[in-house]
From TrEMBL:
Signal peptide: none annotated. This is N-acetyltransferase. Pfam families: Acetyltransf_1 (PF00583). Residues 170-184 have a biased composition (Basic and acidic residues). It comes from Marivivens donghaensis. Residues 2-146 form the N-acetyltransferase domain. It comes from the Bacteria.
Length: 184
């Protein structure tokens, strides 16, 4: 049994460790991280997936971005512990985020990833949506939360301002001793 919960400040470093395990610590050199630098994740779209014993099985975080002058969710990173992969945890996290983002009124989602995995959720290749280099354009994928949400949306993907109502979310308050060590 897997239980999803919104990520809290208490989870932060455990989540970071799982990302390091799944992607290797060099993950923050990826171009998508330049869109996350200094921007808070959307707190209501960040989830942990834990098993009955409270062991962290998977995680997902999401950031706001601009595509041209339009707002979108940059989905991910999503990661599932190597011992729990293939059990559906990734799918549970993906569907939770897509449903929650729809309920929160977001229109469109994008990500950089493997089309063979993400097409099962309804993602499709985006044309003319330009991630910071180096990014393989074939890996830039989109998802409509509203009909036709990606029609006519193209241009550079750039940072968007904080989208959390009320300012910085508690998610990002990990304590002063770690304030300079965050690697998002
Ligand atoms: C990708 C990831 C999140 C999937 O999570 P998961 O819980 O293992 O996925 P699910 O159990 O929901 O789905 C498993 C299915 O996805 C497929 N799959 C997993 N990764 C895939 C990939 N990169 N490309 C194509 N298919 C993939 C599996 O073969 C399996 O297929 P099946 O249903 O036909 O048997 C997980 O494998 C992971 O953390 N990988 C390392 C980090 C990573 O690559 N994250 C994604 C960044 S783009």
């Amino acid at each position: 049994m897997i239980e999803l919960a919104e990520e809290t400040a208490h989870d932060w470093w455990e989540v970071e460790a799982l990302y390091d395990l799944c992607f290797a610590p060099g993950r923050t050199a990826l171009s998508s991280y330049r869109l996350r630098d200094g921007v808070d994740p959307v707190a209501k779209l960040c989830f942990t997936a834990r098993d009955n014993d409270g062991i962290l099985a998977g995680v997902i975080r999401n950031w706001p971005v601009h595509v041209g002058d339009r707002l979108a969710i940059l989905l991910g990173p999503v990661a599932v512990h190597p011992t729990r992969q293939g059990e559906g945890v990734g799918g549970i996290l993906m569907r939770k985020v897509l449903n929650r983002a729809h309920d929160l009124g977001w229109s469109r989602v994008m990500l950089v990833g493997d089309y063979p995995y993400y097409k099962r959720f309804g993602f499709f290749p985006l044309k003319g949506v330009l991630m910071p280099p180096p990014t393989n354009p074939d890996r830039v994928l989109g998802y409509d939360l509203a009909p036709g949400a990606w029609v006519g949306v193209h241009g550079d993907v750039t940072q968007a301002p904080d989208c959390n109502p009320g300012g910085r979310p508690h998610l990002n308050d990990h304590g002063p001793e770690h304030a300079d060590a965050q690697s998002r």
